[in-house]
């Protein structure tokens, strides 16, 4: 019996954001949210009733405690987090905008506690005591240490029969397409589930075409049994090497775009954990819609609410 349903490793951060119409260079106050792409995924799965764990490293400061306390409230296990006596927490800044300007994200995550995490500090037994290990391409380029930790996590998980889920999750402001392609291709070859957005497939791997063609060509560079491609406003497509399953996006009034991809991954994993990959795509587009309709990176919901929303076509007030 595995201790956890899903485990992950990734950086915890604080997000400082300003509303549309406010410029960062003149800001006088911020909205503050704890975040971290892998923790966003597992904290939502925890809220959906699964036993999940997140391994990271944060400083022993009020800011570090702020991140840990917020994720703990979701039910996410953080007992293996490495606390640093010295060092700093990663942050990033968001300047929301309306056309013609684009929303801008600025990272400040160099030389943090997490980027200095060593392989010897990772509790490998804890991390691989799960049904699924979820990882992200966003973590790989953060430091030389992490470029070694992520492949080792995959190797250790596979040796124990743990399914490996991997989200490509490319960020232009962290590394170049050439660097990402060269580093990620060997990593994604042996994962069990691959998440890769349509834009990332084109930018990193030169893959274009219709949804099923993109999924098929991604299947040529990985042995993953499940391939999920996000299509933005067109929803998602999943391929289980036998059948294609496409799910349209939900209609939603967008309040906050950040975190929607993580929420989609959590929804799909929710379906996989229940033994229903096609239903996971339905969950995925709904959890993404919930993320878009809430402020902050983390989705606050319940399993009952998700089931009700997936099964409902009404947008009326529930009384």
Task: Report what the structure shows.
There is one protein chain. This protein is of the alpha/beta class and 319 residues long. The chain has one domain (4-310): Ribokinase (UDP-N-acetylmuramoyl-L-alanine:D-glutamate ligase). The chain is built from ten helices and 14 strands. The strands form three sheets. It has an eight-stranded mixed beta sheet, sandwiched between helices. It has a four-stranded mixed beta sheet with strand order 3-2-7-8. The chain is globular, with a radius of gyration of 19 Å. 46% of the residues are buried.
Which key terms come to mind for this protein?
alpha/beta, 319 residues, UDP-N-acetylmuramoyl-L-alanine:D-glutamate ligase, 14 strands, disordered C terminus, 8-stranded mixed beta sheet, globular
Termini separation comes to: 42 Å
Tell me the number of strands: 14
What order do the helices and strands follow?
A: EEEHEEHEEEHEHEHEHHEEEHHH
Mean pLDDT: 95
What top-tier CATH class fits best?
Alpha Beta
What is the gist of this entry?
With 319 residues, the protein is of the alpha/beta class. It contains ten helices and 14 strands.
Q: Which helices and strands occur, and which strands form pairs?
A:
Elements: E1 4-9, E2 13-18, E3 31-35, H1 37-47, E4 52-55, E5 57-59, H2 62-72, E6 82-84, E7 90-95, E8 104-108, H3 124-127, E9 130-136, H4 144-159, E10 163-167, H5 177-188, E11 193-195, H6 198-205, H7 211-218, E12 226-230, E13 236-239, E14 244-247, H8 260-273, H9 277-292, H10 303-310
Parallel strand pairs: 1-4, 1-9, 2-7, 5-6, 9-10, 10-11, 11-12
Antiparallel strand pairs: 2-3, 7-8, 12-13, 13-14
